[in-house]
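Entry:
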Amino acid sequence: MRYATGAGLVLLAGAVWSVQGLIIRNIHEAGSWEILFWRSVGMVPVLLVWIGVQSGGRIWPEFRAVGVAGMIGGMGLVAAFSGAIFAFQATTVANAVLLFSASPFFAALLGWLILREHVSRATWGAIALAVVGVLMMVREGVAGGAVAGNVAALLSALGFATFTITLRWGKLANMLPAVVLGGLFSMVAGALVVGSQGQSLAIPALEIAISAGMGAVTLAGGMVLYTIGSRVIPAAQATLLSLVEVLLAPIWVWLFLGETATAATFVGGAVLLVAVVLNALIGARERATAAPVLA
């Protein structure tokens, strides 16, 4: 695969993911846990088929290979998925997706604390800049009554960072089985929470179809596109390209729902995005410096 093709697929994955906020905004009766359950119902079969195609039908060995790391990572995805859905319902889409982009910094901190991975001074500087951006946005959320949504978005970012760290800890070459486990765990969590609240998963048929379709097309489809494209794209560059999700998501809700964010959200979000871009560029430079020179 050519680099340009891979880059195009990663960009397309980000664009596909970017419509999820708009879709969730159009689900009015179902709560976060019902959406989580039915979205996972749509996602899991698609990814299972793709894993089967990739492995030549050897699905079970692919799942055995992820081991404990894959299971812990899957649990992290429950927080990532549920937090994201709640955030989209409780705060503006712009706030949510911008706070999601703090995930690389959570991953850097967890890698430093848990895996004893080295964090350069430049990366610490990017983390400090990101904290400034996040504080500006969260402070705005306090004033606007969107505290719960902002906290959920940060928990979602932390959940995805946990997933990322477990992949590195387990040295997993294929992340998709762990994503499927995350979907299965999300179904169990959604059913348990809904049941404990005395409610039912039998939401309106249209909302079931929307949620399941979102899982099958935007979540699973985007994950497949990203997985294929990232094979020829360095991780730091893939991170930058996938930021198209953060840029497009607020545009969709503005175009179709007239939803706008405050100036503080955009200023804080801009600071956070600058930190993300700097962090990715730092990572690319460090890997290039560390790469062996071939005679």
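Residues 3-288 form one domain.
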